[in-house]
Write a structure and sequence with these properties.
Layout: H1 4-8, E1 17-19, E2 40-42, E3 63-65, E4 86-88, E5 108-110, E6 131-133, E7 154-156, E8 177-179, E9 197-199, E10 203-211, E11 215-222, E12 233-239, H2 249-258, E13 268-273, E14 281-285, E15 292-293, H3 316-335, E16 338-339, E17 348-350, E18 356-358, E19 365-366, H4 372-395, H5 405-417, H6 428-438
Parallel strand pairs: 1-2, 2-3, 3-4, 4-5, 5-6, 6-7, 7-8, 9-13
Antiparallel strand pairs: 10-11, 11-12, 12-14, 13-14, 15-17, 16-19, 17-18
Helix pairs in contact: 3-4, 3-6, 4-5, 5-6
Protein name: Protein kinase
Domain Protein kinase: 203-439
Keywords: ATP-binding, Kinase, Leucine-rich repeat, Nucleotide-binding, Repeat, Transferase
């Protein structure tokens, strides 16, 4: 992170990136000195409430983050930045977005955890939009004009007040990752697994294994597992209780509990009881050593698609094993009325034998299976996400396997899963059946 004194002293001339977090209440006009070169501006964690008209001089700016500031209105001056395509206003206090305030070139817009009651109809002009994060607002509907956002691939509208999902949403040709939990339109009675309650005093936390937006996962020793026919070494996830970019932690927890057992899902052993801070949490099986992330989260450049280290190669055998495992897990979830919402390589762990474990239910939605039309639409959206994963695997296929006959069939399956007309995509059960035959 740079400092305001460095900026004012002219020490940052020529910089492409600038990050300032120093309790700013006004936009530092000295930033305009960098107009010829500045591409990424991060002013997260200040106390800004507006931007000056001079901001439009930042004609080379591509990415701008203003999260955790005091904005109540989306700054209209941003629309005058011709190259701006990624914008973040997470956890501000935005209530209103004026017509034509969103830059037309926007590909990735983050408005999570604000107080927005409606979107401008002009958002339909943002036809390059691929990723739209709106969880934790006060939206009651989506404007019909959004149907023109034909490149939209990831949409987060969890934890809003949406009463009805529009029909056009289910016909968007590229929509693959959708989160809709925590809205009136998705409330229904569903059967939950009767998970055992595990008293917090029985768990001895050890090292932290990972931390995400929704909670912290730690290795733990379960002191009384013998009575439960469970392992002594487990993983414990304690939820933070705050709205995330995907939705509400309680919705994630319910989806985890509803998922049940499957060889390609991380097993939930129980839910935490008697936590001293009254926090919710789950006890999960500890993933064995040797598993690694299949891919990395999307970058600024890739936007919606996972990234892979240079030199990544998958054998045909591993490709088939991973694809079948994830498709089987997804089929299992949809049979239970669960849309994962984040079917990605970065949420998949794989071992040396090609066995895949699918996790992270932060964007999951429990839906009503009795509404057959809606259930089909949601599953067909997620099938495209699987098609993207299969495409990634095939793009990194070992050269010596590229000419195998089965590869042509896998490519055809990928194309069918990514068909621009969602109704032409197969169900997961059919995908699993085809992959079993190919294996």
């Amino acid at each position: 992170m740079q400092t305001l004194s460095q900026l004012k002293a002219g020490e940052l001339i020529g910089a492409k990136r600038l990050k300032l977090s120093c309790d700013l209440t006004e936009f530092p006009i000295e930033i305009l000195i960098l107009a010829d070169t500045l591409e990424i501006l991060d002013l997260t964690g200040n106390r800004l409430s507006n931007l000056p008209e001079e901001f439009a001089q930042l004609t080379n700016l591509k990415i701008a983050f203003f999260s955790e500031n005091d904005f109540t209105e989306f700054p209209t001056v941003l629309a005058k930045c011709p190259k701006l395509e990624m914008i973040g206003f997470k956890a501000c206090q935005i209530r209103h977005i004026a017509e034509d305030a969103i830059p037309l070139n926007t590909r990735w817009l983050i408005l999570t955890n604000n107080q927005i009651t409606e979107l401008p109809t002009s958002i339909g002009k943002c036809t390059r939009m691929q990723k739209l994060m709106l969880a934790g607002n006060k939206l009651t509907q989506l404007p019909e004009e959004m149907a023109a956002c034909q490149n939209l691939e990831l949409l987060r509208i969890s934890a809003n007040e949406i009463t009805q999902l529009p029909e056009w949403l289910f016909s968007l040709p590229r929509l693959s990752w959708l989160a809709i939990s925590g809205n009136p339109c998705n409330q229904h009675d569903y059967q939950m697994e009767n998970l055992e309650e595990i008293p917090w005093p029985e768990l001895v936390l050890e090292d932290v294994l990972g931390e995400g937006a929704s909670g912290v996962i730690s290795r733990a020793h379960w002191q009384n597992p013998t009575a439960h026919d469970a392992p002594a070494q487990v993983a414990v996830k304690v939820f933070k209780g705050e709205v995330t970019s995907d939705g509400l932690p309680e919705d994630e927890m319910q989806a985890c509990m509803a998922a049940g057992s499957h060889p390609n899902l991380v097993q939930v052993l129980g839910k935490i009881a008697q936590h001293p801070a009254q926090k919710q949490g789950l006890v999960l099986e500890l993933i064995p050593a040797g598993y690694r992330n299949l891919g990395g989260s999307p970058s600024f450049a890739s936007c919606t698609r996972d990234v892979y280290p240079e030199g990544t190669v998958f054998t045909l055998q591993d490709t088939l094993s991973i694809a079948e495992g994830i498709a089987s897990a997804a089929a299992h979830l949809h049979a239970r009325g669960i849309m994962h919402g984040d079917l990605y390589a970065h949420n998949t762990l794989v071992d040396g034998s090609g066995h895949a474990l699918f996790g992270d239910f932060g964007a999951a939605t429990l839906y009503d299976k009795s509404d057959a039309q809606k259930a089909t639409a949601l599953e067909k959206i997620e099938v495209r996400a699987f098609g993207c994963l299969l495409e990634d695997l095939l793009d990194h296929l070992a050269p010596e396997d590229a000419n195998q006959n089965v590869v042509a069939e896998l490519l055809q399956l990928k194309q069918t899963c990514m068909h621009l007309s969602p109704t032409h995509r197969p169900y997961f059960a059919a995908v699993v059946e085809q992959l079993e035959k190919l294996r």
